[in-house]
Amino acid sequence: xxxxxEGHGRISSFNDLVRYGEENGFDAVGYDEFYxxxxxxxxxxxxxxxxxxxxxxLFHPINKKPMFVLxxxxxxxxxxxxxxxxxxxxxHEKVHGIQxxxxxxxxxxxxxxxxxxxxxxxxxxxxxxxxxxxxxLAKTNTTIPxxxxxxxxxxxxxxxPGPGGRQMRIPTKNEPHKELWSAIxxxxxxxxxxxxxxxxxxxxxEMLGGSKDQTQSQKVTPKEITPKTQKVYTSDERSRLDRMxxxx
Length: 248
What we know:
Layout: H1 14-24, E1 27-30, H2 31-36, H3 40-43, E2 55-59, E3 66-70, H4 75-78, H5 82-102, H6 116-121, H7 123-138, H8 144-151, E4 157-161, E5 167-171, H9 176-187, H10 190-207, H11 235-246
Parallel strand pairs: 1-3
Antiparallel strand pairs: 2-3, 4-5
Helix pairs in contact: 5-7, 7-8, 7-9, 7-10
């Protein structure tokens, strides 16, 4: 599991972000510096400057460390709890850092995020996104079974008027890990989903203090699992969730 990000206080400017990065082992840059730092082959799949996100991050293929790219300089000031957002994103990239360290110098190429099936099925991304999802679940759940059931609760949305009078679907809660999980489920096959379940469970085991050496008889049984929202599950849903836990 990646090391915790350290530091306190608000990040309300680009300079704050740069200092925070220096304290925690990642680079914070603007879009031009990011783009110019890439090898030519990776520029082809680089996120666009005028994309939907005011910031993004990557594990840099040349510098071999996480990089946080601030596209909109106003984002730190406008987004509440921006430091927590940075922590979550950099935690994801630090998973890639651990993966790179294990490669013993093998080359690393940026995946193409526009090809969702390939992107979300990439083994490195499976592990990193599993960490991101587990991190989100660990903030609102206290046990692994509770978190795994919560994972299968679909995010709730409301409809609001958007640009041009079009209706926009807006999440009613700030649960980006659930929105991410919904996107992954739409993009990958069942075999890849089982890998996600395995890694999410393993990361939750570390985050929530589970014991890795518990015996089979000590493992949580289906009867002990109480959904946080008291949802009534069908037999197929419960069987799938029970298998997910037992497959660890």
